[in-house]
Every structure is written in structure tokens, then in C-alpha cells.
Fold this sequence. Notes:
409 residues, Ubiquitin-like (UB roll), Receptor-associated Protein, three-stranded antiparallel beta sheet, cell membrane, cell inner membrane, transmembrane helix, Type II secretion system protein GspF domain-containing protein, T2SS_GspF_sf
Amino acid sequence: MPKFASISVDSQGQKIETRHEAASIPEVSSFLRGRGFTPVSIKEIKPEAFSSQVVKELVALLKQSRIKMSEVAVFFRQLATMLEAGVNLSECLESLSSQTENQNFARLLRQTREYVAWGRRFSQALSEYPRIFPPLITEMIAVGEEAGLLDEVTSEVASYLEGQIDLKKKVVNATRYPMFITGFFLVAMGVMVFYLIPQFKQIFASYGAELPAITRFVMNISDFLIRNLAYEIILILGLGVLGLGYLRTGKGKGALDRIKLKLPVVAKLIYYLVLARICRTLGLLLHSGVPLVVALDHTAAVAENVVAENAIRETRDGIVQGSTLAQEMRKQSFFSPLMVGMVHTGERSGTLSDILPKVADFYDRELDYRIKALTSTLEPVLIIGIGVLVAFFVIAMYYPIFNLTEVMG
Length: 409
């Protein structure tokens, strides 16, 4: 079917550019007028021109920066504020698209406004971009539209996204210092093994004396690593590619998620992080009016842990059979007794949507406490451990110098 590009004007005099698939120009014109738009220009897009335009748009899209979760959170926060002030949705989208610095996001918002202008629901327009607006968000927006509470729901979406951003920041902050120390150690060891130790070896070789066992041991390690460097690089790259390929499979991801929940020290951090995400997401969906079974589906999709996802889906299946949420959660070993007890209380009192965010807050506080405790414990342990290893190599290299007379003899 032929494709057409149109320029029309709405009732407020704003210009709108859209594309259509229709049999003829009159059909496009009739379509526009039927929705209250005044056609200004309608032109047929030739197949070559259309393909060329698509390529240009794809290239432009790749050049733009990716859309961050923080940008989406700011968008919903600003949208909620404007809707609460009585500004209509179309004007909100027009204003926010012009204020957005990320041109990729601005283009998306302009397209969303056009969808809304054509009579599509806001939730349907957002569902065109599932990577930016996942089903969890579009489902909430749809419920808000049905209930006439779009301003409240967009505010809740903004709060939810802000909470997820805070959780990620906590994890990043907790791992930043240990990763820096570990990286510094690896660089230092690389310099010693591949540069300094060979230099010392040449110096000691000029004396032709018997070296201490500790020095020979370190030099043998250095020789082995240097001699087999090419094989080591190939091995590391090969294992990395195979590992990443395996982790992309469902079986591999499940195995990794199960290992994460059994790792010493960090297992509790990951567990509390997942529980907090589950409680906050489920509570938000229920508070927005999303049915429990649908809410559990969306919660499972954002759990970011296969073990948790399976537990949620099995819980959902039990509820479909007529059981209660607390009864089904109790059957799953993944959910903590505290969480199950609070859910049971919420179901009995009819306040489940209010209790779940409080449970999430509890796990957030536990997560904060454990991150601080882990960081304060890990820092000195890492420093001492790295110091011992570096000292070992330094002593191994300088011990013969301290006994220079014996070595020269």
C-alpha cells in the first residue's frame, strides 16, 4: 500500500507531521479531517525515498545518546506536576519534548504526542517503546487513564523509577572502592611481573650467584607468565566469550543467579535488593489498581533474578487456582518469613498495597546497613591483603640485595 507524509494543523494551530499507509491522497485527507485536523500538505513517499529516510533516521538514532532511566524518571516527575496543574496531556508532551536535552528522547516524546493527537491512549503510545517504557509502566498508565487518575499514577511511576535509581546507586557505591583497589593491585602486579622482575633478573644474573628460594620462586612465576603470554590472552578471551555466551542462555543466567544467592558476604545484599524490588513493584502496581495476577506477572519480569522470577510465577499460578498470596508465598523458600507474614496481615486487613512499600523500606534500610558494614570491613581487609602480597614480591626482589655480599661470593 502507498505511503504518504502529511503536514496538518490541529485545533490549537500547532503543526503535526505524520505518516500514513492509504490507497490515495483523498483517503489521507478524509482521515485527517475526521479527527479534527486541517491538512496543509500531503505527499506520497516513493519506495526509494522512504527507504532512504528510514536509513537516515536509523543513523541519526545511533548517533544520539541512549535514554537513561534518570531521564525517564525526570520526565514522569515533570509530567505529573504539569498534569496536577491542569495542563492537558498533549501540551505537556509538547512542552517536555522541547525541554529535553537528549534529542533521541525528545524525538520519542514528539512521536508520542502525535500518537496521542491521533486519538490513541497514552499507554498505547508508550507501549511502542518497550525498552524505554516496560509493560510494568504502561500497565500502570493504562489503569490511571481508566480511573481518571493519570496525574497520580505518573507521580507514582516517577517515585518508583527514582527508587530503582537509588538502589542501583547504593550497589555501585558499595562496589566502587573495592573495584578501584583491585584494579590498582592488578596494574601494580602487572608492572612488577612483566617489567620490574625481569630487570632484577638481569641484575642478579650478572653476579652469577645462587639466589634465595623465595626470589627464584617469584622469578619462575614471572618467566612462566611472560613465556606463555599469548596463550594466556587467548585462554582468557576464549573463556570470556564462552562464559558470556553461556550466561546469555536461560540455563546460564539461572545458574549465575543461584550462585549469587549463595556467595559468602554478598548473598544477603543481593537477597535484600531483590526482595525490596519485588515488594516495591508489587505494592505500586496494586496501589495503581492493577489486578494481582497481572501485577505478579509484571513483578516477575523486573525481579532481575531467575530464582525470584520462578518463585513469583509459581505463586501466581497458585493464586489462579484459588489460593491466597500469603499461602502461595509460604510454599516458596525464596520469600522471607517476615515478607510472608506482612503479606498475610495485609491480605486480612485489606491493606496489602500499603504494607508492601513498608516492607520494601525495611529491606532498603537493611541493605544500607549491610552495605556500610561490608564497606567498612572490606576496605582494611583489601588494603592489608594487597599490602602483604606486594610486600612478598618486594622482599623477594630486595632480599638478595640486602645480602649482596653473600650473593657476590
